[in-house]
Amino acid sequence: MGGAINTLAFPAPHLPRGFYEDELLTRRDLVWLTTSERERIPACHVRAKSSESFLSRPPMTILYSHGNAEDLALHLDYVDALVHFTGSDVFSYEYVGYSVSKLQGAEASEAGCIRSIDAAWRYLVDEQKIPPKRIVIFGRSIGSGPSVDLASREEVEDSAFSPLDVAGVLLQSPLESGARAVIGPVTSWMGYYLDIFKNYEKIGKIRARVAIMHGTADEVVPCHNGKALHASLQRPYEPLWLDGYGHNNMPQDICFDYAKDFLRSISAA
């Protein structure tokens, strides 16, 4: 079962170095992060133009964790669109074992993803001095794993700020855990110690408001995952259950409108 879960969780794309040199390493907003294990990973800090932001200054910053079967370079168009439509800055980082990290020989893992988002957190709050109350943690699919883990913790190693103080958390097609997404909640108990990203154990610890969107016809991470997580929230925001949509065809305009409405609500709070 562990192999099946990891296949779902970490299908890192296999692309040549030239692709990353052309699409990622030439970006002006490229940032390099160093994890607690001295692993080097890329990230992009994309800033909203003042004319795009509907929010008060300074803008909110979205800390984005991408989904499975993609990497930082492959979703940069999405990141740029997210900045434009929400009027927020977006910081999207790479997981250890993906894109150029993979080319350097690193292997993806749950622990590596956690080290990666911790490095992103330190960059935003300790280096860039962005207050946690101006940060929204956004995770899609497997990205809900590191996102929920971070948002549920009181502290991050070598950071002076607590993730419990973020403005909000936004989850798209989130999983209860790796096993529960693959084989369901009952059978998952048999492989408890092989399971990864046990969001169902952590999400109730998040103090910030949490918004969840999920397609009801999702066959990769079934919608019962999102609904179960929503039921465990301390401060739920009205969820978005998109009838008839799956894992990879949720309408971008509807998802962006939902994200924008959520940002408005927490910015005004």
Question: Would you summarize the structure shown here?
Answer:
This protein has 11 helices and 8 strands. Helix 10 links the parallel strand 7 and strand 8.
How would you sum up the major sheet? 8 strands, mixed
Q: What's the helical proportion of residues? A: 25-40%
Q: Classify the secondary structure makeup into a structural class.
A: alpha/beta
Overall average residue pLDDT: 92
Radius of gyration: 17 Å
- SS field, number of helical segments: 11
SS elements, strand count: 8
Main sheet: which strands, in order across? 1-2-4-3-5-6-7-8
Shape, principal axes of CA atoms: globular
Distance between the termini: 44 Å
Strand content: 15-25%
Spans where pLDDT lies below 50 across 5 or more residues: none
The ordered H/E elements are: HHEEEHEHHEHEHHHEHEH
Q: Can you give a write-up of this model?
A:
Strand 5, helix 6 and strand 6 form a beta-alpha-beta unit. This protein is α/β, with parallel strands linked by helices. The chain is built from eleven helices and eight strands. Helix content is 36%, strand content 16%. Strands 1-2-4-3-5-6-7-8 form an eight-stranded mixed beta sheet, with helices on both faces.
